[in-house]
Amino acid sequence: MPDSTETVAGVHPDADRGPARTADRALRVLLAFRQRPEWGVSDLARTLGLDKANIHRLLTTLAGRGFVLADPDTRRYRLGPAIAVLARAAERGGALEAAARPFLSELAHDLDESAILNVPHGAAYRCTLAVDAAGPIRYSATVGETIPAHGGAAGHAIFAFYPVDQVRDLLAGALPKFNAHTVVDLDDLLARYERVRADGVAISHGEFDPNVTSVAAPCFAAGQVVGSVVVIGPQDRMSGKVDTAVDRVRAVAERLSRVLDGVPTTT
Amino acid sequence: MPDSTETVAGVHPDADRGPARTADRALRVLLAFRQRPEWGVSDLARTLGLDKANIHRLLTTLAGRGFVLADPDTRRYRLGPAIAVLARAAERGGALEAAARPFLSELAHDLDESAILNVPHGAAYRCTLAVDAAGPIRYSATVGETIPAHGGAAGHAIFAFYPVDQVRDLLAGALPKFNAHTVVDLDDLLARYERVRADGVAISHGEFDPNVTSVAAPCFAAGQVVGSVVVIGPQDRMSGKVDTAVDRVRAVAERLSRVLDGVPTTT
DNA sequence: AACACTGTTTCAATTATTGAAACGCTATCG
DNA sequence: CGATAGCGTTTCAATAATTGAAACAGTGTT
Questions:
Q1: Strand-pair category, B124-131 with B114-121
Q2: Distance, Å, A264 CA → D29 C1'
Q3: With contact defined as beta carbons under 8 Å apart, do B117 and B96 qualify?
Q4: Any chain A CB within 8 A of the CB of B101?
Q5: What CATH architecture is A21-84?
Q6: Longest CA–CA separation in chain A, Å
Q7: The listed CATH number (1.10.599.10, 3.30.450.40, 3.40.1190.20, 3.30.360.10) that belongs to domain A94-260
Q8: Does residue B14 surpass a pLDDT of 50?
Q9: Is the pLDDT of residue A219 over 90?
Q10: Lowest mean per-residue pLDDT among A167-176, B8-17, B152-161, B224-233
Q11: C-alpha pair distances (Å), A121 with each of A219, A226, B44
């Protein structure tokens, strides 16, 4: 995923009707913080291949709106509170939620079970969008509910694609046991993650809620996990259609990922 | 909080060595999405007082890095996946957050309740980091949420250490009453602050959220309050461990303060 | 059928951006 | 202890990128 590319085409001297350069550089500065949480002016300038003075001005501009924050002592910059604010806005009305809605409806209708979108939230994940199944007996999801990372397939489908050391960091300490089927050992969980990565889906039989089976697949944007799509229902009813659910959920998650990367929907 | 201001001073024709205008405008475009989840080009241009063509270029620039995403059908823009990606980075590597994280985890684990970091934000405070308790019943904090200064122990622990005249200035006007236990009189609040300064901790029994007890202690950097550490949970469960919580929270806040004043944290 | 409204493209004027260089400053090293 | 190398910041003239008005192409409404 190229994001440090400055100019796409500099061959021809003219005809560079591209994006606004100054704004684009500011965005590149922001994105640099996912490689390293803390940057100094010179270091960042060297990394991005830009001038010191230029980076300095961009950083103060970003700081003026709260997107970064300068440690007064070390003179180094970290991401600021405006990011968290925007993230909250995105959780309600972001492109992910908007794009996922029709896909969830499709899943819920085809499989006749509830479909949910989850996003990572610290060492947990949060349900941001749900389309319940039509029938009276169904999994009724609560939008806004937060569930620990190791609880259920939806969590596996997200955190399996986190860097392993980050997972160890996030899930340090005892993992609460929700019932007999909960994965409580960290190494067991990491082994489980390996299979999830290989399969592209996670399946849970009552690991969080008892007697509930769920099938989840990750969706990506710019090469990173940003959430998971889940189909979930009562265990006895799901058992007959797990295979179908696996195919559908995986396909939908892939299509969603493609939309998020900017490729227009082909269907 | 003015954030739609274009130029700060346009009186004098020269001497505008301010932030980079193009980048700043791009940030204002981003911030507009917390007012409305979806924007069209013309509408946004009118709201920000800028030209259509200008906004269009900025939006495509933002879209190029994934900060916004255009619905191909409606041609309207929403916040994109890059926001969520950055939010994840900020959750781990924000300024204070980097230093506070291990302390919060320790508190949450030891007391088995949610632990939160708050920072002052005008006449309010904002939750910038939360480590939720493990169990199913817990205070689930929302990162980015802003709460008025006089609401809850976390606010007391911060603003008790502000200069008194500054507090009078900030909290001039009526203080909203959240429930029966909210402190709404400024003099009562200042008296309360005196006790908080003496104790080094603030305790709230349902002053903001009903049936919720919280224990908060301030953390300092360079002699100034920069935030507060809170342990918070359901009132009935907390009542048995308030004394323990007071000791732990105070101790952790002091250790955090020492870290902030001492060795530069490199993650 | 004309209208009002989108989003997009074009293009010359000008304005804001840019990068090199100079400036304090702190820490490291010989 | 003085020199040096690194940092972040400021300055400023040249330049190149931004800008906004206007024209364009659709769409849905009146």
A1: antiparallel
A2: 29
A3: yes
A4: no
A5: Orthogonal Bundle (1.10)
A6: 67
A7: 3.30.450.40
A8: no
A9: yes
A10: B8-17
A11: 15, 10, 30
